[in-house]
Amino acid sequence: MACAKVPLDELHVTEPFGPQGKERTLPALHPDRKEERCFLIFKPPPEEGTPALVEEFLEHAQFISDDLEWLLALPHDKFWCQVVFDESLQRCLDSYLRHAPRSLDPSGLSSSPAVADMQRNIHRSVFMVFLRMATHKESKENFITPAVFAEIIYNNYLFDIPKILDLCVLFGKGNSQLLHKMIENIFTQQPSYYGDLNETVPSIIQVFDSILQQCGIQSEDTAAGQPLKLNANRCQSAMTMSEEELADLVLYMCDTCTTIHSFLDIFPEACSTFKQHNFLSRLSSFYEMVVPDLEKAVKKRNFNKSLQEDMWRRVSHSRKKMVEIAHLLLQHSCLQPILEGSENVASFVEDLLQSFTAFLQEKRFLADYDEQFPIVDDISLLQQAFPHLDDTRTSYLLQGVESAWECVGKKRSFPSAISSASHSTGAKSKASRDSAASQKEGAGVLGVREELRGAEAITDTPCKGDNGAVCTVSAGELESLLYHIRELLPDLGEGFILACLEEYGYNSELVINNILEDKLSPSLDKLDRAMARPVKKELPSVLSTRSNVFNDDEFDVFHRDQLDMSRIWKGRRQGESVRATLNDKQHIEEQRARYQAYETVVDEIPITNEPSGDRDNAFSMDDYDDEYDDTYDINQIGANDLDEEDELLNRRPFTIPQVLRTGKKAQEEEEDEEEEEEKNEAVRKDHFVQDPAVLRERAEARRAAMQSRKGYRPPPASHVVGGPKGRGQAQETVLDRRRKEANKSRGANHSRRTMADRKRNKGMIPS
C-alpha cells in the first residue's frame, strides 16, 4: 500500500503476482504495473459527410474517447505508469496533435452534430491528459519529486518543443492561462527545454528559407552563407508552380506563422530566445520578399473559386500573424522592460529604436506593422518613460514610416504619424503600464483600426469601431471570425453572429463575452439566435437593364426567342441579281394605295336623275373641282361700269406723253410702265408653268432694250477663230486678230510682252 506524503518516485507497492497470488514489492513506477490496453491512432473527421464515413469515424473515435476517459480515471501512480511505459498511448496523443483540425482547416464538423460532439469530447480529453502529464503535484499525497519529474518528461519525450507548439495552436484559444502555467512549469522544472528551443529557432528560420527557395527567391543571408546551387537558375516561381504545390506552400506558411504566434502569445518568456537569433530581421525580410509574390500568384492565376478564396484567406492570415509576431517580440523584449522601469532602460530603448530603424528598408512590412500597431504610439510611450530620447532620431523614424506608406500606395484610416507626434512631444511624463495602456485605448489616434488586408482585397465589409472610426474587414477575415465563434458556440446561426459582429465592431472576443454573460444589446436580444445568414441578392444582369434604340425590334435577340432568319444574311444576299433587284417593283405596289387617295381629277362628270337627298354620289355638283378657275370670282363684273363719256379716262390712269417727258424721270416712268404692263400681261395669261426658253428670250430682250436706252453699245462679234488653215482668212478675221494682239495687256497677260521688251532693252535679259 502507498504511504502518505511519499513522492511517487520513492514509493514502493506490494501487489499479488502470478497464478498463485504471491505478493511482491515493486516501485510505483514499474513497467509491470502498466495495464495492457491498445490506444488507437486518431483519424481526422471526414470532409465528406456521407453516412458510411460518419459512422466509421464515430465508431473509431468512440474507442479513443473511452480509452482516454479510462486513463483520466486512473489513480496517480497507475496514470504515470501508463503514461511512461505505454507506447500506444504516446502514439495516440501524437496522432491527435498532428491530425486534429486547426482553426482555418475545412472540416466536416458542421455537417453532423454527432461528429462535432465526438470531436469536442476527444479534444477535451486530450487536453486534460496533457495537463495532468505537466503537473508534478496533484495533491499533498500524490506528487513527484521535481527533479525526477523533469527527468521523466524529458527522457521519455512526454513533452518536446514540437508538441508544445502544437498544444499552443490547438488549445490556446480559451485556455491560455492554463497553458501558460503548464508550459511555464515544464520549462521551470526542466531548463533543458530552453536549450531545445534555442536549437529549434534556426530550424524555423530554415523553414522561411525553404519557402523562399520554392518561390524562386534567394535571401541575402542565405546567399552570403551558402554557395549557389547548380539548379538555382531553374527554380520555379509562385506563378509557374503547379496548383497543388502553391496550395501546399501557402498552407505550410500559414501553419508555421500561426504556430509561432500562438506559442509566443502564450509563453512570452521565449521571445528573448527568438530575438537572440536575429529572428525579427529575418521575419521582416521574409515578409517583404514572399508576401507580394504569393498575393500576386493567388490573384492572377486561374484557380477554383473556393480554393482561391481559401488560399487568399490563408495568405491574409499569415500576414497578420507575422506582424503580430514582430509586435510580440518587441513588446516583451523591449517595451515591457521599459514600462516596468528596469535598471538598464537606455539599452532597451536603443534596442527598440534600432529595430524600428531596421524596418525602414522593408517598406511593405513597415506600412502593415504601422497599420496594426502605430509606431507613433510606441515612440510616445518612450518619450514619457525616457525623457532623454533624441527627437531628431524619432522624427527621422516617423518620416520613414510616412515614406513607407507612400511607397506602398496605401491610404491611412487614422491621422499620420508626424501630426500625431507633434501633439504628444510636449507632454513627456513618466506613466505606469496601466495608464499607458488606457491612454492607448482612449486616444483618437489609436481606436479601432482597419484590419490587415491584402494589396487588393477580394471583398471588403465595412465596420464601425467603438470610437466611430470606420474600418474594413475582408471576406476571408469575416469567414475566419464566423468560424471561430461557431466553433465555440455551434448552436448560433451565422446571421445572428453577423449581426453581433456588426454591433460590436467585428470584435470576436467582445461578442463571445457578451453572449456568454448574456449582456447583449436589446436590439440583438430580439433576434432569433438560430437565424441563418442572409442570402445576397443577385444584381440584375446588364442585358435586362440595358436601354437601346433597337430594343424590341425584329432583330432584338435578347427579347425575342425566334427571328425571321430569311431577313438575315452575311455579305451579298444569295439568289438575287442586280437585274432582279431593279425589276422588283414591290415598293411601288406598296405606295399605290397611298397615292390613290389623291386621284380626284375627273374629265367628265355624269349627271343622273337622283334624289336630292342622296349623298352617295362621289361626283355631285357640290364637290370641289380643281380645274375651275376662280381667279376673277372676287371681281364684281358690271357693278362699277360707268355710263359717262370719259369712262375710258377713269379706267386708265393719265400718262405724260413721251415728247413732254424730261430725262431720267421720263425713262423711269417708261420702265415702270413696261413693268406694269408685263405684270398685267402675266396675270392675264393663265399659264400654270411657262416655258423657260420663252422666259429667257423675254429677259434678254428686256436687257437689250435697257442697254440701248442707256447708250451702251455691245462689242461687235469677234472673228478671231477664222476658217481652216491654208485657205486664207477674211478681212474681218485679220483685223480681229490684230486688235486682240494689241489689246493683250488688258487681259490676263498683264503686259507681259511689253515688260519683257523693256527688260531686254535695258540689258537685264541677254539677247
Automatic annotation (TrEMBL):
GO-annotated molecular function: ubiquitin binding
Stretches the record annotates as Disordered: 416-443, 660-767
> Where is there biased composition of kind Low complexity?
416-440
The processes (GO biological process) annotated in the record are: regulation of DNA-templated transcription
Q: Which domain of life is it from?
A: Eukaryota
CUE domain location is 477-520
What the entry lists under CDD domains is as follows: CUE_ASCC2 (cd14364)
Q: What is this protein called?
A: CUE domain-containing protein
Q: Which organism is it from?
A: Culter alburnus (Topmouth culter)
Upper taxonomic lineage: Eukaryota, Metazoa, Chordata, Craniata, Vertebrata
